[in-house]
């Protein structure tokens, strides 16, 4: 018993000594915490300065309690002495207990007056072999990188924040872009901020309200509806909006990668870019709600994601690669079945001018499905269609889509300016009715331009698929899929400026004309041969037959008809297909034979009629005076066209 008491007393003494040691350490830490903080901070700064090309300096610092530190006059410079970062007053507070949970480690940030800037002086090229090695080195763990980035954001983004007058600047050969954080005040319940965006052309002030504690939920409004800086300066995109809502929620790491739920809406959006449309595109309301997941290799948007475009509602899905290692593409767009008049009224302003205002009965729904495997582009799947229920046009909009059924005035544009106008109809002496057009010419046009014109409904799905596959293989828009119907709509109803939305509107008008039978195929062919360009300033077969051969169209020979069909794609460059003596060059002779063989295969020409066929033609009209020797400046254009045409010859 005495021995146990002695042992217990010794244990108590040890506990007292240990407690006294830790208590003394804590007291010393509290007494000298400022000096210790200064020593640790200065040591780390000295270490960074010694090991990097940057120099960091601080005028003063302080430690408040054990969870909040302050720095004053923080300056980061590069080797050239340029100031990259300057902060006049910076205070940061941490939550020690958050080291366990890993969330919201930084309790607060107070930052007042300063700047951070970066100037890109030259581009850095990464060797191709380095990219390949990096792609081969992608591991399963690296696929979780987006998730890790989000976790870092969640870990270090402060739950309380106060920032005033801090400017971020980026500069390159296109000029500077500035983001002034004029005022940001936030806690876990609310965020209020005023941000000023500017470049050398525009300045715009945005106000933000919402929360950025668990996920992101923001409402942004601008002081004025002006072009968004940086987008306009760098990409030529004029982006204007009244109100933007944006929300982002973490869905965690799943089988397809890191998942997010994103929702957003834009009121009063106006867009302008010359490649999108010739006019400003206006949307009253845009909204989306999507589940997306992404990894290092791909971005996937779930097919149950929804969208709203004015009053048009639907769902969509998307898959695109994010690295060279991935080559799987997929897109789904499916609108809800809705009243047709409501559909046309919801098309964005500034585009679809010819179809806006259409009144129709019945319902419409649109579906687009696209799947492409980059390893086998020839197996591309493409399906685009309207599903209609009791659909019929009751009243045309701004443009009468049945315009071609009677005589009308056609205006030709050169370089987007009106060049010439003429009547398409009997009132025009150069107009040629279809029955007076040689059948050989019609057949040659069909063979070279659109073999199934009289059988399709404006589109050839297989031609679209082949065009997509070929363009993907060569990584450029080398091959198109236009039918005669599409060429006709482009010439009669739309401007000749190539834009994204003009192509979409072209497809819509073709569907309306062909699908509703607004104009017969015979009349469409008649209009086509009377308005297309056949040479410099030469429009329609009536003018073309006189320009090249001083004949009426009904006097054209088989070889003359084939020649005229051959030059439709490049009418202004017809003269480069001739030698100096006026004879056809060899590649044009081969092309003549190629078209003839196709006509024989389709039984448009009897084999016996080709026995004495001579592909050579004799220019006897004004065109002969424009034929130039091959050693002139036109040789470059000639050779370019020859290569393009030779590709067509089997």
Write the layout of secondary structure elements.
Elements: H1 2-51, E1 55-57, E2 60-64, E3 68-77, E4 83-94, H2 98-101, E5 106-119, H3 128-136, H4 145-156, E6 160-172, E7 175-186, E8 191-199, E9 203-211, E10 216-222, H5 231-235, E11 238-240, E12 243-254, E13 257-272, E14 281-294, E15 298-309, E16 312-321, E17 328-335, E18 338-339, H6 340-345, E19 359-373, E20 381-395, E21 408-414, E22 417-424, H7 439-449, H8 461-474, H9 484-492, H10 500-515, H11 521-531, E23 533-535, E24 538-539, H12 541-549, H13 558-566, H14 586-601, H15 635-646
Parallel strand pairs: 5-6
Antiparallel strand pairs: 1-3, 2-3, 3-4, 4-5, 6-7, 7-8, 8-9, 9-10, 10-12, 11-13, 12-13, 13-14, 14-15, 15-16, 16-17, 17-19, 18-19, 19-20, 21-22, 23-24
Helix pairs in contact: 7-13, 7-14, 9-10, 9-11, 13-14
Provide a brief overview of the structure:
This protein has 650 residues and is of the alpha+beta class.
Describe it for me?
The protein is an alpha+beta fold. β9 and β10 form a beta hairpin. It is built from 15 helices and 24 strands. The protein has helices spanning 2-51, 98-101, 128-136, 145-156, 231-235, 340-345, 439-449, 461-474, 484-492, 500-515, 521-531, 541-549, 558-566, 586-601, 635-646, and strands at 55-57, 60-64, 68-77, 83-94, 106-119, 160-172, 175-186, 191-199, 203-211, 216-222, 238-240, 243-254, 257-272, 281-294, 298-309, 312-321, 328-335, 338-339, 359-373, 381-395, 408-414, 417-424, 533-535, 538-539. The strands form 3 sheets. The chain has a 20-stranded mixed sheet that branches. A two-stranded antiparallel ribbon has the order 21-22.
